[in-house]
User: Which sequence fits this backbone?
């Protein structure tokens, strides 16, 4: 039970960290502003944030189900993961931690949505927030990709959960989004101030998480790779 609670808390934390990372945070604010800019009442901006969040959650859940259940449905892959998952986790977490600490970096060319897509979403009104959430969720930045593929998916596989853990992760990505949607509903001048403060805090939270990743990765590597290797001798 304690292990499950820790896993759920970790998934929630990874989701929050994903959402406040510079690229996703700017994307989330831009998306809510774009969808809610024609809202006749402030409450519709918050509603657009909820709909946008639903789009992101559905996307993460779908990806997790396809990747995890797809892998576990193949007998050889399932057996390999059961036997060697802890050994794989060590190096994966170390590499993910190095990305979060900016010791390794990859420059990805981000592409915005096309004019045609913008027009279709615009015609949908507030409901356009749902496909917009899907589009931005699959537009992974380096940090969000590391957190999802290097942190969330291994955690979900280890827990044997292709639904609960990804849903909690999606909810985590939603929390800051909903806060900014509420700020936009109250007054847009608050967004810049909060965005500036969150940007300052995010780098330290990311470094803290990166250090934890490396520490846990080293532990897994020592226990499940080096010690098990020595035990054979």
Assistant:
């Amino acid at each position: 039970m304690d292990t499950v609670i820790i896993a759920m808390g970790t998934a929630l934390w990874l989701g929050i960290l994903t959402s406040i990372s510079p690229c996703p945070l700017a994307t989330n604010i831009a998306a809510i502003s774009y969808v809610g800019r024609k809202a006749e009442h402030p409450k519709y901006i918050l509603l657009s944030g909820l709909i946008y969040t639903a789009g992101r959650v559905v996307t993460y859940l779908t990806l997790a189900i396809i990747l995890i259940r797809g892998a576990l449905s193949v007998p050889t892959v399932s057996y390999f993961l059961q036997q060697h998952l802890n050994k794989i986790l060590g190096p994966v977490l170390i590499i993910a931690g190095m990305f979060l600490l900016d010791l390794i970096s990859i420059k990805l060319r981000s592409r915005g949505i096309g004019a045609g897509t913008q027009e279709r979403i615009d015609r949908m009104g507030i409901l356009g927030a749902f496909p917009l959430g899907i589009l931005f969720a699959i537009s992974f930045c380096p940090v969000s990709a590391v957190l999802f593929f290097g942190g969330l998916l291994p955690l979900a596989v280890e827990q044997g959960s292709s639904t609960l853990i990804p849903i909690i992760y999606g909810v985590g990505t939603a929390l800051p989004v909903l806060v900014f949607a509420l700020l936009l509903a109250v007054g847009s001048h608050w967004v810049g101030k909060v965005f500036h403060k969150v940007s300052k805090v995010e780098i330290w939270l990311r470094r803290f998480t990166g250090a934890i990743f490396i520490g846990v990765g080293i532990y897994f590597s020592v226990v499940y790779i080096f010690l098990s290797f020595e035990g054979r001798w």
Summary: Residues 2-232 form one domain. The two ends are 36 Å apart (CA to CA).
